[in-house]
Automatic annotation (TrEMBL):
Lineage: Eukaryota, Viridiplantae, Chlorophyta, Mamiellophyceae, Mamiellales
Name of the protein in its database record: Malate dehydrogenase
Domain spans labelled Lactate/malate dehydrogenase N-terminal: 2-109
Keywords from the UniProt entry: Glyoxylate bypass, NAD, Oxidoreductase, Peroxisome, Tricarboxylic acid cycle
Chief location bin: other
């Protein structure tokens, strides 16, 4: 459940929760009239699993829920949280296409938690530059699994007096990429990062709602339909949000050579995850 603080969240429907205690007739009631639908439904990882291991179960859950969205609120903006995000977002897009209500601006894979983690770790390592983590920004691009999570540490704001380099850089990138796995391992079978995901979802939903109500200049990283990497129909990068979802995909900005290699190395895995989602939705 999302609570509104300083913003009216009354249009949010956390449909996994609705599904948790009711049947399809209540899904209709929950979705009808919704402007923004957050989908966190599905099973979480257990230690030893990749996010892609969740595909077998979560792909069908997301497909069916998005089918209901197409039926009851086809103009809603979707925030997709269920893993594997790299595949569930393409699934959502295909379902909307099949129902003649696809708008690429309106489907956003939630990668906000990667940005929150990157900011937190950067602030902890550079307290002399970052007194307040909320004032720090770290774009995270690519996707939401393993090495497809690519923090652009050369673009941290405020500008760092000592940039990350060498072993410190690689250790930090690895920590950000494995942060979800760290939580899964620590919870030892009891789930994944449910609470921090809820905060990330609330941040993203609030940004969407502010933009939907006309506020300008709201920028969030999200995994969306994009042309940033020509081979990839979906890619996470900075997006300017607007009244209808993604107003403009802003892309990766000026990356350094290390980041460019990381992006290039992620292309094959992202392509395969996207193709897998598209094939599943059309099977
Ligand atoms: N994108 C991101 O940053 C993150 C994504 N996740 C993903 O979010 C998903 C949920 O994770 P948690 O909330 O931790 O798991 P959880 O087990 O705490 O909650 C999952 C919820 O999904 C519901 N659900 C299961 N099957 C459903 C169906 N067929 N229809 C509707 N609802 C259904 C369950 O009733 C439950 O309420 C997982 O796939 C997880 O990997 C988790 C953390 C971060
Ligand atoms: O790691 C997981 O399975 C859940 C997730 O996506 C995250 O915490 O980033």
């Amino acid at each position: 459940m999302v609570t509104g603080v300083g913003v009216d969240l009354s249009h949010i429907s956390t449909i996994s929760e609705v599904k948790g205690f009711c049947g399809n007739d209540q899904i209709e009631e929950a979705l009808t009239g919704c402007d923004l639908v957050i989908i966190p439904a599905g099973i979480p990882r257990k230690p030893g699993m990749t996010r892609d291991d969740l595909f077998k179960i979560n792909a069908g859950i997301v497909r069916d829920l998005v089918q209901s969205v197409a039926k009851y609120c086809p103009n809603a903006i979707l925030n997709i949280i269920s893993n594997p995000v790299n595949s569930t977002v393409p699934i959502a897009a295909e379902v909307m296409k099949k129902n003649d209500c696809y708008d690429p601006k309106k489907i956003l894979g939630v990668t906000t938690l990667d940005v929150m983690r990157a900011k937190t770790f950067v602030a902890a390592l550079r307290p002399e530059d970052i007194k307040d983590v909320t004032m720090c920004d770290v774009p995270v691009v690519g996707g939401h699994a393993g090495t497809t999570i690519i923090p652009l540490l050369s673009q941290v704001t405020p500008k760092l007096s000592k940039p990350f380099e060498g072993e410190e850089l690689t250790a930090l990138v690895t920590r950000i990429q494995n942060a979800g796995t760290e939580v899964v391992d620590a919870k030892a079978g009891a789930g994944s990062a449910t609470l921090s995901m809820a905060l990330a979802a609330e941040n993203m939903a609030t940004s969407c709602l502010r933009a939907m109500s006309g506020e300008k200049g709201i920028v969030e990283c999200a995994y969306v339909a994009s042309e940033v990497i020509p081979e990839l129909a979906f890619f996470a990068s900075k997006c300017e949000l607007g009244e209808n979802g993604v107003e403009k995909v802003l892309g990766c900005g000026e990356m350094d050579s290390y980041e460019k290699v990381q992006v290039s190395n992620a292309v094959a895995e992202l392509k395969s995850s996207i193709d897998k989602g598209v094939e599943f939705a059309n099977a």
